[in-house]
Each structure stands twice: as structure tokens, then as C-alpha cells.
């Protein structure tokens, strides 16, 4: 009975090894299963236009860096007033930089 269990483990290991080898061959050949293209959201675009770091941009908007990260990653949405500030920052990044000067 122990030999049967061991045979199954080797067989499963061999199967896994063959699958891994096949995956490596496909990667080397440039075949990929999935490509993800991300468009930066308005918050990211606004911050990037200002040229500020997350910490600097958060300070200029009087919010925590963590809140900004949540907005940028799409886990939370800015409130109405914050959305207005984001639109202003996106259209007039120099105004946000002036706040920190």
C-alpha cells in the first residue's frame, strides 16, 4: 500500500514538473496568457501632472497620504469637494504646486 501512495506522489510531481516546463517554454516563446493594461485614474493623472510625490500632493490637498493611496488604487472614491480639487489640480497643476511653496 505504501508503494501505491508513493507512486501517486511521484506521478503528481512529474505532472507538475511537466506543466512547469511547458509554462517556461511558452514564456520563452513570448506567449502569455493574459495582458493587463491599466489606465491611471483621474487622481493619479492629476498628481502626475503636478510632478509631486504622493506625500506632497496629499499635503497640498490636506489629506493623509493613505487616503490618497486609497483613491489612486481605486479602493475609495474622493468626496464631491475632493473631486473638485482633483479636477482643478488636473487642469492647473501649477496652482497645487503653489500651495506648497
Write up this protein:
With 101 residues, the protein is mainly α. It folds into two domains: 1-36; 42-100, 434 Repressor (Amino-terminal Domain). It is built from six helices and no strands. The chain has helices spanning 2-28, 42-50, 54-61, 65-72, 80-91, 93-100. Helix 5 (80-91) packs across helix 6. It is elongated.
Attribute tags:
single chain, 101 residues, mainly alpha, 434 Repressor (Amino-terminal Domain), 2 domains, 6 helices, 0% strand, elongated
Give a topology summary.
Layout: H1 2-28, H2 42-50, H3 54-61, H4 65-72, H5 80-91, H6 93-100
Report a brief summary of the structure.
With 101 residues, the chain is mostly helical. Helices cover 71% and strands 0% of the residues. The protein contains six helices and no strands.
How many separate helices? Answer: 6
In round numbers, the mean pLDDT is 87
- Kindly name the structural category: mainly alpha
Top-tier CATH class of the largest domain:
Mainly Alpha
SSE series: HHHHHH
Give the strand tally. 0
Amino acid at each position: 500500500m505504501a508503494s501505491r501512495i508513493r507512486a501517486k506522489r511521484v506521478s503528481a510531481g512529474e505532472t507538475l514538473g511537466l506543466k512547469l516546463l511547458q509554462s517556461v517554454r511558452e514564456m520563452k516563446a513570448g506567449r502569455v496568457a493574459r495582458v493587463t493594461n491599466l489606465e491611471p485614474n483621474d487622481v493619479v493623472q492629476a498628481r502626475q501632472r503636478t510632478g509631486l510625490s504622493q506625500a506632497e500632493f496629499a499635503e497640498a490637498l490636506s489629506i493623509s497620504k493613505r487616503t490618497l493611496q486609497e483613491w489612486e488604487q481605486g479602493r475609495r472614491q474622493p468626496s464631491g469637494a475632493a473631486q473638485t480639487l482633483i479636477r482643478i489640480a488636473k487642469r492647473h497643476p501649477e496652482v497645487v504646486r503653489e500651495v506648497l511653496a
